[in-house]
Write a structure and sequence with these properties.
This protein has one domain: TIM Barrel, CATH 3.20.20.70. Helix content is 35%, strand content 20%. It has 8 helices and 8 strands. The chain has an 8-stranded parallel beta sheet.
Length: 220
């Protein structure tokens, strides 16, 4: 059996914004394909990060990356089209931020605009809550910390959710990718991969290092 390549999606929330272009080129040289954008509004989570202008300006930089945009905001429908037009290749909203009856419609809307659509769940939200929507998704993002701040410790029970999502995916031949975000390092990445994660989001572990290529390889 051929081992599937694990993709790494470095979170620019932990990058040095004084040298953002340099930091992004550094991780490109390290062989990553994804760039993770943690968008926070100070309401859905108790932190504020960045928004559409940063995404748009980086998209115009023509970096050869998949822009993986995670909306940790209330009322994501209000801004969904703007983020897509600004350059999101994947746009992920939170199950906890929308009404269930709107999820399929928002997925169809994103697909109509040519963007992949994902759904994220907080640590206290069970996989059972999103099972009715899995066939409409391109990505499921399991938060392995409480969203809002970097540098938190990995919540071990996240692996059970990842395993459950893998099982449902295989049984139903669904197409979504399983992504995990929060407390990812060389030790927790092994647990997440064993459970079935396919994309690992990591911020401070990568960007705070003097040898980012080494750190990225350690996650793989």
């Amino acid at each position: 059996m051929i081992n599937k390549v694990i993709e790494i999606s470095p979170s620019i929330l932990s990058a040095d914004f004084k040298f953002l272009d340099e930091d992004i080129k550094d991780i490109i040289n390290a062989g990553v394909k994804y760039l993770h954008f943690d968008v926070m509004d100070g309401q859905f989570v108790k932190n504020i990060s960045f928004g559409i202008p940063v995404l748009k300006s980086l998209k115009e930089g023509y970096y050869p990356l998949i822009f993986d945009v995670h909306l940790m905001i209330i009322d994501p429908e209000k801004y969904l089209e703007d983020f897509i037009k600004a350059g999101a290749d994947i746009v992920t909203i939170h199950y906890e931020a929308v009404k269930e009856e709107d999820i399929i419609r928002l997925s169809e809307f994103a697909h109509k605009l040519g963007t992949k659509f994902g759904l994220s769940i907080k640590p206290k939200t069970e996989v059972s809550k999103i099972k009715p929507f899995l066939k409409y998704l391109d990505l499921v993002l399991v938060m392995s910390v409480e969203p809002g701040f970097g540098g938190q410790s990995f919540i071990e029970s996240s692996c059970e959710k990842i395993s459950e999502l893998k099982k449902v995916k295989e049984e139903n031949k669904y197409q979504y990718l399983i992504e995990v975000d929060g407390g990812i390092n060389d030790k927790t990445s092994k647990k997440a991969k064993k459970a079935g994660a396919e994309i690992l989001v990591s911020g401070s572990y990568i960007f705070k290092s003097t040898n980012r290529k080494e750190k990225i390889e350690s996650l793989r």
